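Sat 14:20. Reprocessing the chain from the morning session after the first attempt stalled halfway. Input below, unchanged.
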Amino acid sequence: MEVYKVKSEEEDAKYLLSYINDVLIPSSKEFFSLLDDNKVLLHHAFSFNAILAHAIDYMVFIANKVIDANRKDFISKFDQRYGVDGCAHINNKFRLLDAINNSFKHVELEQKRYSDLIEMYGELTFHSLTPIKGKIFFKSSSYKFDYSRVVMRPIAAIFDCGLKTTNDVDDFINGRICGSTGYGCFDYDYEPHDAIDRMIDACNPECMDCGEGGDDCDCPNFIYGNDRGEFSSNTDPNFNFDDVMSNISGTREWSK
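Finished this time. C-alpha cells:
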C-alpha cells in the first residue's frame, strides 16, 4: 500500500525527523509516565493529541509534494498501513485522533470531512474527552473508552522506530517501517534458562487493548457501540504450563 515511489525533498524530511525525534518522542515518554501513574489531565491529553496530529499533518504535506494526496483518504488508510496495535473495536484510530484534534482547535468541526466518524461516534466536540480519576475517556451516547490508552498509546508507538534519514522518512510514510507496542512478539529461546521469565510473563500479561495488567485493566467496562471491551491478554501462544514448570524444576517427574 505504497503512497509514492519517488524520494521526498530532503529539507521536508529533515523537518519531520527533527519534529519526531526532538518533540514527539520526548513528549511520548513524558505522557506515558503520566499514563502509567494515572495522572493524565485533560490538558495533557489535548496537548499530546495535537503533537501526534501535527506529525500527521506534515506527513500529508510531504506526500502532497509528490502526489495529489486527498487528506481524508490518506489518513483513513493509516491504520491499515501501519497495522496499528490495540483495540480492534476502534479501527480508525488515526482519523479519530485527527478529528479530536480539530474539534479542539475549532469551535465547530467540519461536518462533511468527518461525516462517517460523526455517524459512528456521534457529535465530536471538545467535550468528547472527559477526565476521570487520572484517565481520559472518550465518551458519547454509544461509546466509552480510555482514549489515551486505546487511541494515542498505539499511535505514538508507531513513530518510535529510529528514523534518521530521508529514506527512512519515505519508508515510514509508505508504511515500510514503523514502530509498534511489540504485542505478539516473544523473544524467548524456549530453553530451560528462560523458563522463569516465560512463567512470569504468562502470569502477568498486559492487555493489548489498553496496556494495563489484569488487575488494573478497565476494558470490560468500555463500550464500543453494540460491543463491550474485554481483557485482551498478550500471552505467548506457545506457552505450555507443564513444559515450562518442568524446565523450572529441572525434572519431569512431577508431571507423571
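Residues 10-173 form one domain.
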